[in-house]
Design brief:
Structural class: alpha/beta
Strand order of the largest sheet: 6-5-1-9-10-11-12-13-14
CATH superfamily: Ribokinase
CATH topology: UDP-N-acetylmuramoyl-L-alanine:D-glutamate ligase
Helix content: 40-55%
CATH architecture: 3-Layer(aba) Sandwich
Shape: globular
Radius of gyration: 18 Å
């Protein structure tokens, strides 16, 4: 099986179940977006939502994907930056517990947190204070960290540090690694469109996007967007929510239907889709089966609150994936 290395923001997620949308309005948070906030606003949101049910989990987009891969049994590593604090310890221990090879740099700044505000329609809005996560830089990326890995997975949220992303891609390219990128969030794509297009056209082998992100990236609707992106990246995965996903590679184009599920919270759906897809890819499966594996993982995670599933759920997933991998 191919080994997978992820790079992204090391965060601890605070999953908060809201009643109504007034918190989003009060703090001027566009519904469904990921907004970067300063430490003061982050603390204000945490204080205002204390009355609502919430749980803590280690998170960050790429970290969620790598954690999911590790729980499936893949050989994984994760590069990120955390604080010298209890929250940083929590993040590292949670990743190690899943079997991830943690390649973390400690900083004096506090570990980043992402407050995930989940409304009653299961939509999630993130207010993220990156803290120490933002201090990961190009100089931290030594070629030795990439040694022995076959696939590099990047989250789009780190595109604001273009030298970091370019350095990661350059090292991965020199080691003949496949490079996979998730576009992260439509507002991030809009803000950094030129940087995204540069990285995708020059380095990316596998691109993950949802409808909003692909629209922001191309200005086109779903099927036209796939054709546009395919000119830049060899493999394109376009997730279309409850309708499933479109996958394209060269002249091959397939539609994968979403699994019927009881949607509780969409947090982590894209991250775990990527985990399922990359797990199947690492096992040498064809494109359509990779999409089915991604769809299965996404369907399982939206039935719970948050992006981290327990061992029992992963045991069920592994049994179902075994059937997929065997071609049944």
């Amino acid at each position: 099986m191919k080994r997978i290395l992820g790079i992204g923001n090391a965060l601890v997620d605070i999953m908060t179940l809201l009643q109504g949308d007034y918190i989003l309005q009060e703090f001027k948070l566009p519904k469904g977006s990921m907004q970067l906030v300063d430490r003061e606003k982050s603390e204000g949101i945490k204080s205002a939502t204390e009355i609502f049910p919430r749980t803590w989990t280690s998170g960050g987009s790429a970290a969620n994907t790598i954690h999911g891969l590790a729980m499936l049994g893949a050989d994984t590593g994760f590069i990120g930056s955390i604080g010298r604090d209890d929250i940083g310890d929590f993040f590292e221990n949670d990743m190690k517990k899943a079997g991830v090879n943690t390649l973390l740099i400690r900083r004096n700044s506090p570990t980043g947190t992402a407050v995930a505000l989940i409304t009653e329609d299961s939509e999630r809005t993130f207010a993220t204070h990156l803290g120490a996560a933002t201090e990961l830089n190009a100089d931290d990326l030594k070629p030795l960290l990439f040694e022995g890995y076959d696939i590099l997975y990047l989250e789009g949220y780190i595109i604001n540090n273009l030298p970091l992303v370019e350095t990661a891609c350059t090292i991965a390219h020199s080691k003949n690694m496949l490079i996979a990128l998730d576009l992260a969030s439509y507002n991030v794509v809009e803000e950094h469109i030129d940087s995204f297009r540069k990285i995708v056209s020059e380095y990316v082998d596998i691109l993950f996007a949802n409808e909003q992100e692909s629209l922001a990236f191309t200005g086109l609707e779903a099927e036209e967007a796939i054709s546009f992106i395919s000119e830049m990246s060899p493999t394109v995965i376009l997730k279309v929510g409850a309708e499933g996903s479109w996958l394209a590679r060269g002249t091959e184009k397939v539609k994968v239907t979403a699994f019927p599920v009881n949607c509780v919270d969409t947090t982590g759906a894209g991250d775990l889709y990527a985990a399922g897809f990359l797990y199947a890819l690492a096992n040498g499966l064809p494109l359509e089966q990779c999409g089915v594996a991604g769809s299965l993982m996404a369907g399982k995670v939206i039935e719970i609150v948050g992006a981290r599933m327990d061992k029992n759920r992963f045991r069920e997933i592994k049994n179902e994936l075994a059937e997929i991998l065997s071609g049944n």
